[in-house]
Amino acid sequence: MSRSSRLLLRQMSNLKHAIALLLEQPQLLVGEGIAGRNIQAAIAAADGENDGDEDSWWLLHIDQDEILYDGNGDTSWRSQPNIGHVTFTNHEAIPVDHDTQDSFQDCVWFTVNREEVLFMAYGNGKPAVRLCRGVETDGVHRFKGYIGAAMTLPLPQTASSEQPSRRTQHEQQEWPVLLHYPYPSFEAWAAKFTLYGAFSDYWLDDERYPNMLKFMLQSRDQVQAALGRGDWSAAKAFFTARVLSEDEIARGVCAGEIRRYGPITLRGAEEIEVGK
């Protein structure tokens, strides 16, 4: 395997493995459990593997419903010596109108991340950090203690801007983006919020940190009401309003608001497990 810059993945869910697709297939470091322990294990592993070469190791938070899509193989962000923190813009999968066992295959249309566009889930991207001693978690998705500047790839489009030129659209496609599949189908949405239960309006039930994800709170209420009544008709109507018709998708594509990625087949990459 080439000693090119490595991408490290940190897993923060209960699944066994993180998921990623990178056509270049760099080495993946996958950890479980407490985030701080994983970062220290990743730093130690990177330090041990770095035999004096100038290759960089990067750590990326990623969940089981996300893929870092590097479709055109542009990895130049990893080799910029003055950059220590890169936030990847996320696009959100549009749900399909049927149950799916493989959202990466079935969900191929994505709402493009633009200002003033409200996603069902988060819209502020996720960062990767260049590993060095002193790197720490800064909340759930961020890092601190890195060396160098921070940048975001690609820059989000503004909802009020004119339709970008073909060249601009092509350039946007060349950069890696994070594809998020939070609610690929009604069945997946219902199962997720049934599992979540009657959670608080505040993160960690702390009034200093209100949950600003409107769709998430509405989904909680819809599912709790459906469970209480034993009737899912209203909940299904609420969710299926987010499933777009072919005509709606076509109009969104023409306006630059919707983009196609996939279908995506996950390909294996060497994995080193840490934090067990």
Quick structural gist:
This protein has 276 residues and is an alpha/beta fold.
Structure, explained:
The protein is α/β, with parallel strands linked by helices and 276 residues long. Helices cover 26% and strands 22% of the residues. It has helices at residues 35-49, 103-106, 166-174, 186-196, 214-229, 233-240, 246-254, and strands spanning 6-10, 28-31, 57-61, 66-69, 83-88, 90-93, 109-111, 114-115, 126-130, 136-138, 142-144, 149-153, 157-158, 177-180, 258-260, 271-274. It is globular and about 55 Å long.
Question: What are the defining features of this structure?
Answer:
single chain; alpha/beta; disordered N terminus; seven-stranded mixed sheet; five-stranded mixed sheet; 276 residues
| Overall residue-averaged pLDDT value | 75
Number of strands: 16
Please tell me how large the radius of gyration is.
20 Å
Main beta-sheet annotation: 7 strands, mixed
User: What fraction of the residues are assigned to beta strands by DSSP?
Assistant: 15-25%
Helical percentage: 25-40%
Broad shape: globular
Q: Give the terminus-to-terminus CA distance.
A: 25 Å
Structural class: alpha/beta
List segments where confidence is low: pLDDT < 50 over at least 5 consecutive residues: 1-35, 158-172, 268-276
Count of helical stretches: 7
Give the SSE string: EEHEEEEHEEEEEEEHEHHHHEE
Biggest sheet: strand arrangement: 12-5-9-3-1-2-16
